[in-house]
């Protein structure tokens, strides 16, 4: 018996203010008008755009801009989760994760803890003290764990949104000593790319699901497109060679598509300026499809 596809409430985070190259701010705009998403709808996908977060027109510092945008995004996601609906945030730079998962956490924390699968080429776990660039898109996971700018660690609620034992990272292959030291100190499970290649993504994902489900009431997944090999996903601002196979990632996502404990998802760092033949644009649609049709 076929299962009706879940409705996905889409929220765009059209900002690249936290990155060194702001081109990813156009990613959500392109996806909102993408023929590939219209094709998904024609196939029966229930996709609904609920909000498009855009930078304030008045000039702000990167930090103040991220604070404001994170609050707006958190409010939008919080409303969706409160209504017991499934969401996917389309970024934009990965600082979106601060607002996305702060918003989700605000609605579930009274019931218990939340897990998160972080798929990325990078750790995104810098603090202002360890970051060489100061770019906030390299800090969101640390913020969610309670480390970093106080205004970013306290979006909607003051406490950390994630506990280290409920988080894992997949596909890591480019990082700095400071952020690795933080994750090691916290004993966060990191599946480096070498381990993914050795064991296979399917086996890694099975272990990841065990981690984010142990002691939690729900979990989410955030996918940075630079986790995927640039051959498959050229349209991203910080491409790293030797990444995940796009086909393999799309093949394992149905492992979670039926899971009622999956509260929402995030797909970030799509930069149309670097895309070739709309390859990455189509991939974003394929990733959505993998989480839609069960």
Let me know the CATH homologous superfamily: Ureohydrolase domain
Kindly state the mean pLDDT as a whole number?
A: 95
> Can you tell me the CATH architecture?
3-Layer(aba) Sandwich
What is the class in the CATH system?
Alpha Beta
CATH topology: Arginase, Chain A
Q: What is the H/E order? A: EHHEHEHEHHEHEHHEHHEH
**Sheet having the most strands:** 8 strands, parallel
Note poorly predicted spans. none
Number of helices: 12
Give the N-to-C terminal Cα separation. 11 Å
What is the number of independent domains? 1
User: Radius of gyration over alpha carbons?
Assistant: 17 Å
Enumerate the strands of the largest sheet in spatial order, edge to edge or round the barrel.
2-1-3-8-7-4-5-6
